[in-house]
Amino acid sequence: MDPSSGVTAEELFRSGQGITYDDIILLPGYISFALDDVSLQTKLTAEIELKRPVISSPMDTVTESEMAIYMALLGGIGFIHYNNTIDEQVAHVRKAKRFENGFIMDPVVLSPDHRIRDVDRIKEKYGFSGVPITENGRLGGRLVGIVTRTDIDFESDRNLYVRDVMTSDVVTAPEGITLAEGNEILKESKKGKLPVVDNDGCLVSLMSRTDLRKNRDFPLSSKNPSKQLMVGATVGTRESDRERLVALEEAGVDVVIFDSAQGYSSFQTDIIKWTKKKFPALQMIGGNVATKEQAKGLIQAGVHGLRVGMGSGSICITQETVAVGRSQGSAVYDCARMAHDCGIPVLADGGVRSIGDIAKAIAIGASGVMMGSMLAGTDEAPGDYFYEGGIRLKRYRGMASREAMAMGGGKRYLNENDPLKVAQGVSGSVVDKGSIVDYVPYLMQGVKHTMQDMGCRNISEMHKRLYNGDLRFELRSPSAQREGGVHSLHSFSEPHRLPRSN
Q: Which residues 6+ apart lie within 8 Å of 28 measured at CB?
């Protein structure tokens, strides 16, 4: 083959050197179709399909119920972290499973005995000041009023009781109302919030004009046969984690990841076999793995998908600290090549910093990409925004950072009971990226451009061309990498986030 036509993936990864996403470039193919003809439908596991190949990482600064809900609405899926109690993790799963598009099922609620300063705190923490008021200050209590920005904007005394400023004549909707009906009431009443109440006048949910705009239409939603949003969760591999697994299965979780930094162990193979026997219909993803031997071992144990990556995340220092791991490009290709022959999809976990990295991961065999740092700065990620140097940020930490391990994050490193813990992750911050409702479609549109440029209409076709040698690659020298990035400018603005729409 003429070297000017690049090399096959097999030739590329044959050298034995560790290859990262930065080390390779994808060579163009022949375009014979429009961008809208590109499909990103993919496999999460042997039996679960997604419309988009995006998965949010099970980290305590990335995925809880809100992230899981919106990832599913956007055609991907989120995995609830397990750096929490069983009850807390189950609550996040149930919240995602019972989500109804456009309805806020767990609104922030106050009582008449709260004060305006409590509304101020809600505004500071969550960014809104429209709060329903119930007799007992809880969801399920009898609705007695609502406080909005117009009720309190010009009150100088922030110690006033809510009862003295709230609007008592509240426009409400009956339980069971449809999204379209609620939208019509909001439109006619010109209100920003619409409490939904039962026959006794007790608050059951809330509709918001802002959220309705956000929730308008999600045709790619990941749903199970019961029309519920799909949600995943992680569990550890200890004997005690079986209790957690039972609780998650009862809550309706669709798929679980057995979460270990090094997944090829007797701990993981034992729990895979136990789960397969106890819950034969539950889809299981094993990991993390980085070699074909590890991948083969977990597939033989019975997993339906693999999570690939060891030490390649932006906040992971495993490779530096314990000198064990693998370059992510090499890990993904090696594991995917072996798993492909067994009909098992792989998720590329770690090392993704851009649209190009997502596309490269898929081009070398991944069926989906698990993202942490790219999603941690979004509105839907846990935590509050803060400012540093005039830049709006959110905190992001590795599950093996000292802070996360103090909360239980050491479980995936099998060191939660060790008196002396070795950190394999760090804590940091990431820039505000706005809502994933805007951000994920932006990323996916970029991946579609990549696939069109390569002449591939869908991921299945891309993988077929990968393994028959038609897909071509080229190694990039350091100077080629510099040339492919921004250069020769005095200054520039990086498109790290989309403009906010509200």
A: 453, 454, 455
* CATH architecture of the domain formed by 3-100+219-387+433-476: Alpha-Beta Barrel (3.20)
Q: Is the pTM of this model over 0.90?
A: no
- The string of pLDDT tens digits covering residues 118-174 is 998 888 776 677 899 999 999 999 999 999 888 888 888 999 999 999 999 999 999
User: Which three-class secondary structure state does DSSP give residue 388?
Assistant: strand
Please tell me what DSSP assigns to residue 14. Answer: T
User: Is the Cβ–Cβ distance between 53 and 440 less than 8 Å?
Assistant: no
Report pLDDT for 407.
Answer: 60
Structure tokens belonging to residue 419: 């008196």
Strands 54-56 and 77-80: parallel
DSSP letter assigned to residue 106: S
What are the Cα distances from residue 269, in Å, to 235, 244, 260, 266, 347? 13, 17, 11, 5, 19
> Helices marked H in 110-240 — which ranges?
116-126, 149-152, 179-189, 209-214
Q: Tell which CATH classification among 3.20.20.70, 3.40.50.150, 3.10.580.10, 2.60.40.10 matches the domain 104-208.
A: 3.10.580.10
Backbone dihedral angles phi then psi of residue 97, each to the nearest 5 degrees: -70, -35
Residues of the chain with CATH 3.10.580.10: 104-208
Give 394's strand partners. Answer: 430
The rounded radius of gyration (Å) of the Cα atoms in the chain is 24
Segments in 44-126 forming alpha helices (H):
65-73, 86-97, 116-126
Contact at 8 Å (CB) between 349 and 306? no
Q: What strands, in cross-sheet order, belong to the sheet with 173-174? A: 103-104, 203-208, 193-197, 173-174
Residues 476-497 have pLDDT tens digits of: 988 888 888 777 776 667 665 5
- The residues pairing with 134 across neighbouring beta strands, listed in sequence order, are 143
- Write out the catalytic residue numbers: 316, 412
Report the relative pairing of strands 232-235 and 255-258 from DSSP bridges: parallel
Report the DSSP beta bridge partners of residue 473: 7, 26
Handedness of CA 101, 108, 230, 444 (dihedral sign): positive
Give 349's strand partners: 370
DSSP 3-state percent helix, strand, coil across the chain (nearest 5): 35, 20, 45
CB 275 within 8 A of CB 248: no
How far apart CA 155 and CA 233 sit, in angstroms, is 45
Look-up of token digits 């005095």: 490
